[in-house]
Amino acid sequence: MLDTMLLKNGRKGGSERKSEESSGTATVSAQNLLLCHCNHHCPESSVNNTCMTDGYCFTMVEEEEGGVAVLTAGCLGLAGSEFQCRDTGKARSRRALECCTDQDYCNRDLHPTLPPLMTSDYVDSSIHYMALFISITVCTIILGLILVFFYFRYKRQESQPRYSIDLEQDETYIPPGESLKDLIEHSRSTGSGSGSGLPLLVQRTIAKQIQMVKQIGKGRYGEVWMGKWRGERVAVKVFFTTEEESWFRETEIYQTFLMRHDNILGFIAADIKGTGSWTQLYLITDYHENGSLYDYLRSNTLDVNSLLKLAYSSISGLCHLHTEIYGTQGKPAIAHRDLKSKNILVKKNGSCCIADLGLAVKFNSDTNEVDIPPNLRVGTKRYMPPEVLDETLNRTYFQSFIMADMYSFGLIVWEMVRRCISGGIVEEYQLPYHDLVPTDPSYEDMREVVCIKRQRPSFANRWTSDECLRQMGKLMSECWAHNPASRLTALRVKKTLAKMLESQDIKTSM
């Protein structure tokens, strides 16, 4: 019985001991938890800005955008808290963190302050500014030295004799009695070349002495003026600055050796005048008061003799252009590429000369190369042959350009024949294809008529009853044939017209 009581007491004592031990553990665990004040870092279970942790209470001050200091407080768990409380300060923003565990709400007494501004960035930026300042200073000094160098160079050149002499010297350079014809003949006889132009210094001298009188024309390249040099009338073609390539090309063609011909517009001089703000490109040629063939045909009718003279002189000029002259100083073959009645001038004696060579193409037979000008101008759409309109022209084959000129010449002959009186009848002047395309036709307009429908300007019924006009109709038809290889050459047309002129002279004398 005693043993039984001891066993019961023992069980009871053990049970009570276990209960006491469990209560003691709970008390110890509760004693290890710390209450902290929280602000901005409060967990969801917090009440009245109070959080509970087994680690540390903290207070932190951090600088946000705009330089505003924000104070936060809260609880840090025991795991990793030692590391977190040792804030390295290497974060992107300025901040300071302090921790405590001595009592509940101990972080209310913590007052961390922001660390002072780091000076490394400031030092770096000041170095950048210093480097920039030094670079700008050095560049300015170098630029100043360059400007001083060019200024003294310019002043030195100004003090030296100029290539172009002034007006007083010009007068002594060209004797007062010399006319343009005398100067050109003198340049031929002294061996500067038949038609290769006056010496450059003489050209510049003449250009500076010309007085502009009145404007007589305007085109896509610029303006044409009638001017005077020592009382002689000259034509002055003033190119737009955008047409420098055309000016250069035309000047180059006119000054080609052996270029001068009675039926090619007589070249006198070329010059560039200008200052820093403006430039004028001058091309000075013979002046012809009758104007272009286009103007002449609009206001004049023709008889058979005048018709043949206009046609023969025109083809003579074109034939000279197309013909290559061989020799030590020969002349290359040249194609016009913009042949039309507005680019042929009528002389006082009723003959024609070909003008406007800004699009001309030269053929170098030594290298077998076609020298095409680099300018962006193209010919006149109304006078373009089918191979140009449908873009099948072979630009590497020079004869393609020659045959294109012949097509255009056929249309010009048509314009002439319409104004020739026969049997008391004459048609009013019209441009080719006037009844088939608009006033300012597009490529598509011309391509449809010339290439697709293969139409050509119509013949008047009266032409068939006049022998001369009938032959001229046959001639123009063979010039504007659709197939370039079938077209007549300039030399063939020239011989045919020469025979017609001869027979007409015989008839007149009889």
TrEMBL record:
Chief localization: membrane
Q: Name one GO molecular function term.
A: ATP binding
Task: Output the InterPro entries linked to this UniProt entry.
Answer: Activin_recp, GS_dom, Kinase-like_dom_sf, Prot_kinase_dom, Protein_kinase_ATP_BS, Ser-Thr/Tyr_kinase_cat_dom, Ser/Thr_kinase_AS, Snake_toxin-like_sf
Which residue stretches belong to region Disordered? 1-25
**What cofactors are annotated for this protein?**
Mg(2+); Mn(2+)
Q: Where is each GS domain found?
A: 178-209
Q: Which residues does the UniProt record annotate as the domain Protein kinase?
A: 210-501
Q: Which family does it belong to?
A: Belongs to the protein kinase superfamily. TKL Ser/Thr protein kinase family. TGFB receptor subfamily.
**Entries under PANTHER family matching the protein:** BONE MORPHOGENETIC PROTEIN RECEPTOR TYPE-1B (PTHR23255:SF62), TRANSFORMING GROWTH FACTOR-BETA RECEPTOR TYPE I AND II (PTHR23255)
Query: This chain belongs to which protein, by name?
Result: Serine/threonine-protein kinase receptor
Q: What is the lineage of its organism?
A: Eukaryota, Metazoa, Chordata, Craniata, Vertebrata
